[in-house]
Specification:
The structure is a single chain. With 259 residues, this protein is an alpha/beta fold. The radius of gyration is 25 Å and the shape is elongated. The chain has 10 helices and 6 strands, in the order ααβαβαβαβββααααα. The protein folds into 2 domains: 139 residues, no CATH class; 84 residues, Zincin-like. 24% of the residues are buried. Helix content is 66%, strand content 9%. Helix 2 runs antiparallel to helix 10 and helix 5 runs parallel beside helix 7. The chain has a 4-stranded mixed β-sheet with strand order 3-4-6-5, with helices on both faces.
Length: 259
């Protein structure tokens, strides 16, 4: 229990500055690539999100080695009730211990961990809620009976993106405002009813082609991975700044390929 608390505390304290650094570097990289293809900027933001979790996790893992080779972990807590903000005599630590440890009050450590777990629960709840909403949309959608124009658009998209004929099913929904793609292993494209009655072949081609690009890029799977990586770092305000450009550049990637 004590070791797991030390690991989490080390993760959190390192994440405070490391995540902020990742966001700054991603913003700089995206700005330098502002005139390049959207997929290059998307790679920058996707890499930043992955590193925002992996770098603090890696540095926290060093606590395991420190506990084997050193008597004190990089971040630990004292069992005594030591006041942090009151001037009181504290026995001086050896120079080597001062350089390698950062001790905090046990009550403060438990408070920090409690707040962190609250963020984890909240982010996990939002992800589950989004998954349930997607299932509801999929359940209420009905498979379309494509007319000649819709069937031609689907056939053309399958040829262009190398998708096996019939592997992607196309549904329609009366309540959905925009097209969406769902399904980890059996992808389903759901189109708004209004779009099918639009009568604009170019618009229909762009919409269906856009969703076929999502299928070809495995964006649904990647989005799930991104959401799972985001949950452990969702407590950090800077981590939230990674999501909007990540989603925006993903959609721009699809638009570029459709064009």
């Amino acid at each position: 229990m004590r070791l797991s608390s030390q690991l989490l505390l080390t993760f959190l304290f390192n994440a405070f500055w490391q995540i902020a650094l990742m966001v700054v570097l991603a913003s700089l990289g995206s700005w330098l690539l502002r005139n390049s293809l959207a997929r290059h900027r998307h790679w920058v933001w996707a890499t930043a999100l992955c590193l925002a979790f992996l770098v603090p996790a890696f540095t926290a893992s060093q606590t395991l080695f420190d506990n084997v080779t050193q008597p004190n972990a990089p971040v630990s807590y004292e069992r005594q009730n030591i006041a942090l903000f009151v001037n009181e005599a504290v026995p001086p630590l050896p120079e080597t211990e001062l350089a390698s440890t950062f001790k905090i009050n046990q009550s403060l450590a438990l408070t920090i961990l409690g707040i962190y777990f609250a963020f984890l629960l909240y982010s996990s709840f939002k992800l589950i809620q989004a998954w349930q909403t997607t299932r509801t949309i999929r359940r209420r959608a009905t498979e379309i009976e494509p007319n000649d124009s819709v069937a031609e658009v689907i056939r053309r998209c399958e040829l262009e993106f190398g998708t096996r004929a019939g592997s992607v099913r196309v549904f329609r929904s009366e309540t959905l405002p925009v097209p969406v793609t769902t399904g980890l292993f059996n992808p389903v494209i759901i189109l708004p009813e209004s779009l099918l009655h639009e009568g604009n072949t170019d618009l229909l081609t762009s919409a269906i082609g856009h969703e076929f690009v999502h299928v070809a890029r495995r964006d649904y799977v990647l989005n799930l991975i991104y959401e799972l990586l985001f949950i452990p770092v969702s407590f950090h305000p800077a981590a939230v700044l990674l999501i909007p450009p990540l989603l925006e550049t993903r959609e721009l990637c699809c638009d570029e390929l459709v064009a």
